[in-house]
Amino acid sequence: MNKTFKKMLVSGAAFALLGGVLAGCGGLKGDAGKATKDDDGKTLLMYQIGDKPENYDQLMEVANKRIKDKIGYKVNLQYIGWGDYEKKMSVITSSGENYDIALAKNYVANAQKGAYADLTDMLPKYAKESYDMLDEAYIQGNTVNGKLYAMPVNGNVYAQQVLSFNSTFLDKYNLDVSNVKTLADMEPMLKVIKEKEPNVVPVAAGSGWRVIRDIEYVMDDKVPLAVDIHGDTTKIINPYETGDGVIPDLKTMHKFYELGYVAKDAATSNTDYNLESDTWFARIETQGPYDYGDTLLTRAAQKPIVSRPITSPIKNTANARMANFVVSNNSKNKEKSVELLNLLNSDPELLNGLVYGIEDETWKKLDNDRVELLKAYGPKNHMSAWNTGNNEIVYLEKSITDEQIEKRKESIENAEKSPLLGFNFVTDNVKTELTNINNVMSQYLDGLHTGTLDPDKALPEMNQKLNGAGLEKVRAEMQKQFDEFNKSKK
After folding, report:
1. Among 100, 248, 363, 423, which is least packed, fewest CB within 10 Å?
2. How far apart, in whole angstroms, are the C-alpha atoms of residue 428 and residue 112?
3. Quick one: pLDDT band at residue 10, thresholds 50, 70, 90?
């Protein structure tokens, strides 16, 4: 995926709509320590990722009034910037620092270490309303050694990759994308753009871009071991040595690169191809049910974006863990913390006041749980929906139709579950090999996926190095554990 829009994978287009700003923010010391002492200890300390909204104090004043009325506590919500969150939470977790709630990072490892409270029985008891609204995939995807340690935000429980096209050029050259199903299908259109729009990049590929097939990695793409969703779903494969894996698309991308459809410096480029600009023609995006097709991408771009799916809608572990909130095992307020999580995920008045901003200033509620965004609405005066609370109770913009809502519900119900859903690979026996494999992959990933490297030459070399790094040992260990996982499901 285009590195610029890896951020969109986290949230889908809804993230752009609801204003997630991805710059880092400063440290925490000061407010965090002070706030836990407010209200005779009746304040919960909660860590969140991203930038603090500019009207944070006003948002929290309104929110805390309702939270205090409902559960007798307030919340001190502390933001940590995107670039710092994982590192700072690792320090907070390993040091045993006292906090109550946090957006989880390294969820499985920290759960296995005992850093998080066991919520298996607490969620049905103290957060029954929210818990009952969760798709079963969330439960399966977050169960670790038979226990549940997270309250996941109910949102895009499935995702699929799409090729998205800039309508400026579709309209200008009367290009039809209705039959596009693969990267290769784009070639005639890319030729038109290359010949007639010299200042436009036909394919917006850069560092971090990945070709996408119905291949699901057990860990991530730096460990090339996966399951073919449409093949033998009990077998762990290396998709870089299997003809039906990613190899056909790698060859297509190399052809595009040689034809000039991809920037020459794509493998190392951090160029931003902004969604709303006319610097690009085609890109890869991620969409889920709450994106309502191209509705939210179109809003973010301020012009029509037309997309075609290239993967199947799959409920997988990554989506199940997209926004997990956990309770610290050191928290002295575990029950109240779960009550707060329930409130954030079941109280429409509270949640919508956070994700849209101050009512009648940035938004106005209409009939039938619809909203109209006012002129004052902007990216910095509200919180983002994907990592705040239950998307099912977020009011919809007035442009979303009842038919779209029904289609969303049907799509969630009909989406397949990944064969890897809930599988947690224990890496204890292969840590050295995994480090070596990561080092090998870092030499080839961007070059192969942007088409810069010729796969006919690079893949044999890469696979030889992977074998030397211990890939087969890891695959065998992974297959053994996966076999045991599948037996346990029967």
Report:
1. 248
2. 12
3. very low
What is the Cα–Cα distance from 478 to 443, expressed in whole angstroms? 23
User: What spatial distance separates the first Cα and last Cα of the chain, rounded to whole Å?
Assistant: 36
CB neighbour list of residue 116: distance below 8 Å, 6 or more residues apart: 104, 110, 149, 150, 326, 327, 328, 329
Are residues 288 and 157 in contact, defined by beta-carbon separation less than 8 angstroms? yes
Crossing angle of helices 348-355 and 334-346, rounded to 10°: 80
Round to whole Å and give the CA distance between 405 and 292.
8
pLDDT at 90: 95
Q: pLDDT digit string (tens) for 119-143? A: 999 999 999 999 999 999 999 999 9
Rounded Cα gap, residues 298 and 26, in angstroms: 32
Could you read off the pLDDT of 259-295 as tens digits, one per residue? 999 999 999 998 889 999 999 999 999 999 999 999 9
348-369 residue pLDDT tens: 999 999 999 999 999 999 999 9
Burial 271-303 (b: 16+ CB within 10 A, else e): bebebeeeebbbbbbbbbbbbbbbbbbbbbbee
CB neighbours (10 Å) of residue 220? 11
Burial 428-443 (b: 16+ CB within 10 A, else e): eebeebbebbeebbee
CB proximity list for 242: less than 8 A, separation 6 or greater: 228
Helix (H) or strand (E) holding 364: strand 363-365
Residues 149-197 have pLDDT tens digits of 999 999 999 999 999 999 999 999 999 999 999 999 999 999 999 999 9
Structural tokens at position 135: 């798709």
The β-bridge partners of 397 are: 371
Identify whether the C-beta of residue 446 lies closer than 8 Å to the C-beta of residue 246.
Answer: no
Beta bridge partners of 440: none
Read off the pLDDT of each residue in 436-442 and give the average, rounded to a whole number: 98
pLDDT of residue 39: 59
Q: How far apart are CA 427 and CA 478, in angstroms?
A: 9
Classify residue 343 by its DSSP letter: H
Kindly tell me the sign of the dihedral angle through the C-alpha atoms of 238, 159, 410, 308: negative
Enumerate residues 6+ apart whose C-beta is below 8 A from 340: 44, 46, 67, 71, 73, 75, 101
Structural tokens at position 257? 């690169």
What span, in angstroms and rounded, lies between the C-alpha atoms of 114 and 118?
A: 9
| pTM, two decimal places | 0.86
Largest distance between two CA atoms of the chain: 70
Q: Is the pLDDT of residue 34 over 80?
A: no
Cα 201 to its chain centre, rounded Å, is: 26
